[in-house]
User: Which sequence fits this backbone?
């Protein structure tokens, strides 16, 4: 097995994981995976096909669901059809945490995430990457930000929702992520914590690059 390098980035919703991870991967010429899109894909399949969540989560393992990594953008194919445009609807947003906390769903997706990390150098982001998926990652980062800043960021992505409504949604998601019994969102003891409230994405990326190169 090839000995590829990996960087794990964890953190709560809207802490900057995806944009930082993608930029970092570009600078390092690494692959990039936002594991959240995998849970969104499972939620979509459950809703569309009315399947048992555990059975749906096996679709990545049996290649019914596949991920493309072109141009640092993750796209999900279901039976070779691109379903990515459907994965960020309000319907998915409201249900994804319900299924992502299920033990067997996470177990099956972690199997696939580990397998992906064995194929190339990668920057992987999520909520249990450093603690569960890539426990031996070369570098572990935990990005954090205040609830107020995260609410503003997320409301800018969803113009139809007020900042206050988004804040309540994020607070609810935080409770689910941090209190679930299986792979809760916690700070790995080896992770470097970076608060992104008052620094630019570019500075966060440079700080991580410095840690990586000097590690």
Assistant:
């Amino acid at each position: 097995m090839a000995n590829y390098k990996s960087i794990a980035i964890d953190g709560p919703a809207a802490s900057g994981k995806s944009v930082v991870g993608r930029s970092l991967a570009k600078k390092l010429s690494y692959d990039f995976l936002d594991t959240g899109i995998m849970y969104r894909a499972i939620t979509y399949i459950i809703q569309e096909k009315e399947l048992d969540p555990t059975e749906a989560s096996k679709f990545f393992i049996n290649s019914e669901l596949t991920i493309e990594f072109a141009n640092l953008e993750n796209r999900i194919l279901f039976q070779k059809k691109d379903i990515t445009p459907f994965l960020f609807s309000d319907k998915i947003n409201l249900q994804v945490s319900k299924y992502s906390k299920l033990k067997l769903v996470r177990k099956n997706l972690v199997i696939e995430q580990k397998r992906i990390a064995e194929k190339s150098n990668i920057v992987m982001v999520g909520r249990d990457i450093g603690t569960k998926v890539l426990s031996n990652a070369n570098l572990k980062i935990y990005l954090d930000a205040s609830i107020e800043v995260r609410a503003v960021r997320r409301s800018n992505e969803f113009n139809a929702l007020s900042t206050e409504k988004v804040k309540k949604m994020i607070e609810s998601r935080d409770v689910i992520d941090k209190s679930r019994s299986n792979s809760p969102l916690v700070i790995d003891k080896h992770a470097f914590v970076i608060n992104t409230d008052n620094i630019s994405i570019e500075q966060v990326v440079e700080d991580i690059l410095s840690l990586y190169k000097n590690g």
Observations:
- The chain has nine helices and eight strands.
- The beta strands are 6-10, 31-34, 65-68, 75-78, 81-82, 122-126, 139-144, 192-195.
- The chain has a mean pLDDT of 94.
